[in-house]
């Protein structure tokens, strides 16, 4: 076991309750010793409710990735009805002290084990996971190893493949474990692309400046590089889609919980998200793609993301008392689908690999995938979509 000296800042100003957000419940910090070092967990929401466990992406932490998102007005019903535990990877909290030079940073598999240690410490029996990027990869590994402890997964820009040769060669120099704690331009450039993508950098220069300022002022560069190196040395997540044609085949290694994959239309990780979705059980996996959005889903489309999460939680049987707003994404998609059906008859099938958002301004694309998609006709697919359209009238919506 590698024993890190704790670098937890229990008085993190980002965890203080904003006076203008009445529905937000103040977070409290919980330092936990795991077999691979100390981690800081922040608890948000009301206690003794259904737990949601989050895990952040590289270059972020629980405060900067999730705090403001869960304080968003559209997330009030979730904050009020769930207990949210935000896990920080070792050394990733704001203004963290440098991790010991002699320490070996945990691998992705070991970071997944720290999640299990957190569950045991907090006495969480089962939870809903919410991970972004690296955090999505870690929670996926955890859910595969401990399937009974995760019954729902929300994965933003989730990657399941290993590192390829070109990626590793390109990033070898920028991510070299430097003796100093300052950033290099190549590494900053890579992380900005990783989080935003090229299109978002052009369309939203304010996000670029905000991200650069955050990386330079709020996080320890050497600690971030350690986490990034673990991600770049990751092994592929071995899982496969169940064989629906051969029920007698050996049970595949796959996620058994309900999953929602989220990405943006121009996200640099979109193909990886589709690939990960392809490996999941189509009866339990949903794919959500937001148009007019790149890699920073929580920053670019927070309202749409909040609504997708609410619908997902309703599908799991939670917060069913909440009605869908009149001008919600779901109703806009439903209205557009119904109008297309009225004009054109049965709806044409949406290409699986092609991105076909309904509207580049204010719509999201919700759909499930199936191995049998390639064998069904337009009439069947149109009927399936119409059933989905009709389901939006029900408060307990299942994606």
From TrEMBL:
<dbReference type="Pfam" id="PF03096">
    <property type="entry name" value="Ndr"/>
</dbReference>
<feature type="region of interest" description="Disordered">
    <location>
        <begin position="339"/>
        <end position="379"/>
    </location>
</feature>
<protein>
    <submittedName>
        <fullName>Uncharacterized protein</fullName>
    </submittedName>
</protein>
<dbReference type="InterPro" id="IPR029058">
    <property type="entry name" value="AB_hydrolase_fold"/>
</dbReference>
<dbReference type="InterPro" id="IPR004142">
    <property type="entry name" value="NDRG"/>
</dbReference>
<comment type="similarity">
    <text>Belongs to the NDRG family.</text>
</comment>
């Amino acid at each position: 076991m590698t024993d890190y000296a704790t670098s937890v800042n229990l008085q993190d100003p980002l965890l203080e309750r904003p006076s203008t957000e009445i529905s937000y419940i103040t977070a409290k910090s919980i330092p936990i010793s795991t077999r691979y070092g100390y981690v800081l967990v922040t608890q948000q929401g009301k206690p003794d409710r259904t737990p949601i466990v989050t895990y952040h992406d590289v270059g972020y932490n629980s405060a900067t990735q999730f705090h403001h998102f869960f304080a968003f007005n559209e997330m009030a019903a979730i904050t009020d009805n769930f207990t949210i535990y935000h896990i920080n990877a070792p050394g990733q909290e704001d203004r963290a002290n440098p991790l010991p030079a002699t320490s070996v940073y945990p691998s992705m598999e070991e970071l997944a084990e720290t999640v299990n240690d957190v569950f045991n410490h907090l006495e969480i029996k089962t939870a809903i996971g919410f991970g972004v990027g690296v955090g999505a990869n870690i929670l996926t590994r955890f859910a595969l190893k401990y399937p009974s402890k995760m019954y729902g997964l929300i994965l933003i820009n989730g990657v399941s493949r290993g590192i390829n040769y070109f990626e590793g060669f390109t990033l070898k120099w920028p991510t070299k474990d430097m003796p100093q704690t300052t950033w290099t331009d190549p590494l900053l450039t890579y992380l900005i692309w990783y989080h935003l993508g090229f299109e978002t950098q052009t369309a939203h220069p304010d996000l670029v400046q905000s991200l650069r300022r955050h990386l330079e002022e709020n996080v320890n560069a050497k600690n971030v590089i350690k986490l990034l190196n673990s991600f770049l040395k990751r092994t592929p997540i071995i899982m496969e889609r169940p064989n629906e044609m051969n029920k007698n085949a050996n049970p595949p290694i796959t996620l058994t919980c309900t999953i929602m994959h989220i990405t943006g239309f121009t996200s640099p990780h979109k193909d990886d998200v589709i690939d990960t979705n392809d490996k999941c059980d189509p009866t339990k996996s949903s794919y959500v793609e937001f148009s007019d959005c790149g890699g920073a889903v929580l920053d670019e489309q927070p309202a749409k993301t909040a609504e997708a999460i609410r619908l997902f939680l309703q599908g799991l049987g939670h917060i069913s008392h909440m009605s869908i707003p009149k001008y919600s994404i779901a109703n806009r998609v439903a209205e557009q689908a119904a109008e297309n059906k009225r004009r054109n008859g049965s709806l044409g099938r949406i290409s699986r690999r092609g991105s076909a958002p309904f509207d580049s301004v204010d719509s999201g694309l919700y759909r499930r995938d199936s191995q049998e998609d390639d064998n069904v006709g337009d009439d069947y697919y149109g009927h399936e979509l119409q059933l989905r359209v009709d389901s939006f009238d029900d408060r307990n919506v299942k994606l």
